[in-house]
Write a structure and sequence with these properties.
The protein has 184 residues and is an all-alpha fold. The chain is built from five helices and no strands. The chain has one domain. Helix 1 packs antiparallel against helix 3. It is found in: Membrane.
């Protein structure tokens, strides 16, 4: 009788320890996914904000450049010295306005905006890759623990099932098409 009680206690402890081990691994997978999900949402939010910011700055720069191009065309079309002088004076005035605008709004630097977007996209993608590796590492540990004996029997008894790895679909493995984002 005592031996039977000892055996039952040992079996119960064995089941409890394995159940708790599976639960801890399961919670680790959930936590790793929460981290990954946060980075995925950061990418969505950050990318949209960056694109809108750069688009606004770009629109202002393009408007100023179009004014200069228009004035340049006026210089080329001028047929007499008075028209040319007037056109050059307008161009000089517009160039001074552009310089003042850029000094007043240093964020209006076309190339810097695109470089900033590129750096931000790369940084976010690196964070996502690290979070994905972390998540997949936890999923791998969990899946291994419920796949090997005697874990597979205990996991089946407690209805633990394997978790799916987070793999990017083939179309998401390609580089982000920033040009398409600007053409929305």
């Amino acid at each position: 009788m005592v031996i039977l009680i000892i055996v039952l206690v040992v079996v119960a402890l064995f089941l409890i320890m394995n159940y708790n081990s599976f639960q801890k691994l399961n919670v680790n997978v959930d936590n790793a996914f929460a981290d990954l999900d946060a980075f995925l949402m950061k990418r969505v939010d950050q990318l949209d904000n960056l694109i809108q910011t750069a688009r606004q700055a770009t629109d202002k720069e393009i408007e100023a450049l179009e004014n200069v191009v228009g004035l340049r065309q006026g210089i080329l079309k001028a047929s007499n010295p008075d028209e040319k002088i007037k056109a050059h004076n307008q161009l000089t005035k517009e160039m001074q306005a552009i310089t003042v605008t850029i000094e007043r709004y240093p964020e209006l630097k076309f190339n810097e905006n695109y470089l900033h977007i590129q750096r931000s996209i790369n940084e976010i993608e690196e964070q996502i890759q690290a979070a994905r590796r972390n998540y997949n590492g936890h999923v791998g540990k969990f899946n291994k623990s419920i796949a090997v004996f005697p874990g597979n029997i205990i996991a089946g008894f407690f209805r633990f099932t394997s978790r799916e790895m987070f793999e990017a679909p083939p179309e998401k493995r390609e580089n982000v098409d920033v040009k398409a984002l600007f053409n929305r």
